[in-house]
Specification:
Order of helices and strands: HHHEHHEEHHH
Largest sheet: 3 strands, antiparallel
Number of strands: 3
Strand content: 5-15%
Number of domains: 2
Strand order of the largest sheet: 1-3-2
Radius of gyration: 19 Å
CATH superfamily of the largest domain: Winged helix-like DNA-binding domain superfamily/Winged helix DNA-binding domain
CATH class of the largest domain: Mainly Alpha
Length: about 130
């Protein structure tokens, strides 16, 4: 029997790891966070140029979700032409240290795999 969407939501909020991954998971949220971590604020079009392959709809949706979850701040300037800038909130910056740790773990794991074999499965079969 399948769990209702409400039960799934409740289960995700019970586990802190699932909750955190739900906030920043997906194809585009981490790259957005990484770009915003390097700069104080970034305009929409600049983000779009740096995220090769993202659609306007996906960028807008990802930014909206990150903003709703308190990770990204959206500042709209009432100028002509209108200007909008995005930046990480204090809460958003607080995830950078855990992401750095996860990155270090990934690097170590990748290095271990490389020492086992210099080739991927496909290359090994060709040689």
């Amino acid at each position: 029997m399948y769990a209702s969407s409400m039960e799934k939501e409740e289960n995700n909020t019970v586990c802190p790891l699932k909750y955190a991954l739900n906030l920043v998971g997906g194809k585009w949220k981490l790259p957005i966070i990484c770009i915003l971590a390097r700069e104080e604020s970034v305009r929409y079009n600049s983000l779009k140029r740096k995220l090769v392959g993202i659609t306007n709809m996906m960028l807008s949706q990802s930014l909206k979700e990150l903003e709703e979850n308190g990770i990204v701040h959206r500042e709209q300037y009432n100028e002509i032409p209108p200007r909008v800038e995005y930046s990480l909130t204090k809460e958003g910056r607080s995830i950078l240290e855990p992401l750095e740790s996860l990155s270090e773990w990934g690097k170590i794991h990748m290095d271990k795999l490389r020492t086992q074999s210099p080739y991927c499965g496909e290359c090994r079969e060709v040689k």
